[in-house]
Amino acid sequence: MTDISFGARLAAAITARGPLCVGIDPHPELLRSWDLPVCVDGLARFCDICVQAYAGFAVAKPQVAFFEAYGSAGFAVLERTMAALREAGVLVLADAKRGDIGSTMAAYAQAWAGDGPLAADAVTASPYLGFGSLRPLLDLAAANGRGVFVLAATSNPEGASVQRALVGGRTVAQSIVDDAAEVNRLAAPRPGSVGVVIGATLEQVPDVGELGGPVLVPGVGAQGGQPETLGGLGGARPGQLLPAVSREILRAGPDFAAVRRAGEKLRDEVAYLA
Question: Which residues are responsible for catalysis (predicted)?
């Protein structure tokens, strides 16, 4: 728990260490390519290398699903990895994409934005049970100085039929951005701690100019998003965009120095966004 908002801590980290979110995605194929066993021991070694490579970067984003696949032992590795990243001066964004209603959403909030071992500096969340269903998470995150990145416009083709649907003259994705902007507007001070997620490869994106919070932009690098074309995405302002890169960096492993160099190269390529 901290008295400084996530929005303020993120802005300071971006200014000091660049606007890049480096991914920790221990996919089984990636473990094999690093000559690591596809088991908890391989998972732990993979994460140790990532922590060593990512020390001093602004934000790291563990993909929770790849830890959850190993059950309680995988979550134990995730807990240790998150703690080690913080010790290395890195903000931790847990890519958990949680979303539910009522007491269940409140329990997810306690897990990822409370005071427990899985609590991160920020967490991703799905609003597709209605933006209001996220209220327990938004409230607890704000109380604990944590952030929430809400899925708005994702790059998977299945999402388009929902996210681009028009309701009251706006796309659903735009309504999510607007709802997040309202939360940030009511909170003080700026920058806000509620961000949105917008895929880097989308041709049609919502307007984020009045969001008042950060925009996580996955899909840069191996997934086709080009670092040099991100400027002004959705009307974003300087320092607002946070490109997220995983495979483009991790395929340089298993040598931690090579992973770090790959991350530094991409950080340099997106430095103009700060």
Answer: 97
Residue 31 has which token pair?
Answer: 């473990």
- Total of domains in the chain: 1
Residue 1 forms part of a structural domain = no
Report which residue type is found at 63. Q
Q: For 72-93, write each residue's pLDDT tens digit.
A: 999 999 999 999 999 999 999 9
Contact 149, 197 (CB under 8 A): yes
Q: At what angle do helices 256-269 and 40-54 cross, to 10 degrees?
A: 50
- Read off φ and ψ for residue 57, nearest 5 degrees: -75, 165
Amino acid at 28: P
**Which positions are annotated as active-site residues?**
97
Domain that includes residue 66, residue range: 6-273
Name the token pair of 132. Answer: 């209001």
| CATH number for the domain harbouring residue 145 | 3.20.20.70
- pLDDT tens track for 161-190: 899 999 899 999 999 999 999 999 998 777
Backbone angles phi, psi at 166, to 5 degrees: -95, 130
User: 122 with 6: CB under 8 angstroms?
Assistant: yes
CA distance 105 to 126: 11
Instruction: Confirm whether 207 is domain-assigned.
Output: yes
Q: Which two tokens stand for residue 7?
A: 């929005």
